[in-house]
Design brief:
By secondary structure, the protein is α/β, with parallel strands linked by helices. 50% of the residues lie in helices and 13% in strands. α9 packs across α14.
Length: 290
């Protein structure tokens, strides 16, 4: 990939797993990330690698990427920063959040002549770091096209899916199916284990069968080996499932399989796996009472 002008600064607000992966990608592609995080110590290694710290990233950068835990956190963090908002700026929000908040932010920024794009990322922090994630973008076409140099940094596949809020909605649909694929894999491996089938053999067969999903590649071995080093936290996916169910309820739709999935995630969290990788959902099945 052709590297960008090294003096081009891109703001990054939020240095969790995904925000850190995005910052690394920016550095690798010739940008200078101007970072902010509620806990500054998380920025130290990134600053050593070429990022810059700022207490006021909106004052320094024309384009700012937001990567936070939830819509509530975005509101809490971003609201006091809006004093630095300028005409022509673009805020790219990669947070998996409430679609209604995306619409709210677009309208709020419009009064200042700035643009808001909801751009949630489908893929783990590891996939993002490797440039293999998928990005869904909602917002004005002009603002989307003005960020054409950034999209290949954030993901391998980019979909402009419509006006603001559209990408947030699509991310919930994607996460619903992704999470259920992961839960189905966990249940299948737990079943295979109960039947005394070698789990590595079972995984190989599943990968070659009509049951295949990409979760077998990313989470299968982690589940079998009990390797729950974090690529995406289990508790964060529980947050997403809660939002999925809340959004469906607003539309008068019942999602019974997602309701069962939430109970399974809650059980895994109660067992102490909330801060570990979401592949740890298998532990809830392994420890289920007979």
């Amino acid at each position: 990939m052709t590297k960008q002008n090294p003096v081009q600064k891109i703001g990054v607000i939020g240095l969790g797993l995904m925000g850190t992966a995005i910052t690394v990608r920016l550095i690798e592609n010739g940008f200078v990330p101007v970072v902010w995080n509620r806990t500054r110590a998380k920025a130290d290694a990134l600053i050593d690698a070429g990022a810059q710290w700022s207490d006021r990233p909106l004052a320094e950068c024309q384009r700012v990427i937001i990567s936070l835990f939830s819509s509530d956190v975005v509101r809490e963090v971003l609201t006091p920063m809006l004093v630095d908002l300028r005409t022509g700026q673009t805020l790219i929000d990669t947070t998996t959040g409430d679609p209604r908040d995306s619409i709210h932010w677009e309208q709020r920024l419009k009064f200042s002549g700035a643009f808001y794009l909801d751009a949630p990322i489908s893929g783990s922090s590891q996939q993002t770091r490797e440039g293999r994630a998928t990005v869904m973008v909602g917002g004005q076409q002009r603002a989307f096209e003005d960020c054409n140099d950034l999209w290949p940094v954030l993901g391998a596949q980019i979909f402009h899916v419509g006006p603001c809020g559209s990408a947030a909605k699509m991310k919930l649909v994607s996460n619903l199916i992704l999470g259920l694929n992961r839960a189905a894999l966990a249940e299948g491996l737990a079943f295979a284990d109960a039947l005394h089938i070698d789990l590595h053999t079972a995984l190989a067969v599943l990968r070659g069968s009509a049951a295949y999903s990409r979760q077998m590649d990313t989470k299968g071995t982690k589940m079998i080996d009990g390797d729950f080093a974090v690529h995406a936290k289990l508790t964060q996916h529980l947050k997403d499932v809660n939002l999925i169910l809340e959004t469906a309820e607003q539309e008068g739709l019942v999602l019974p399989i997602s309701q069962a999935h939430r109970r399974l995630l809650q059980q895994a969290e109660a067992l102490g796996y909330g801060q570990q990788d979401n592949s740890a959902i298998i532990q809830a099945l392994r420890r289920s009472p007979a």
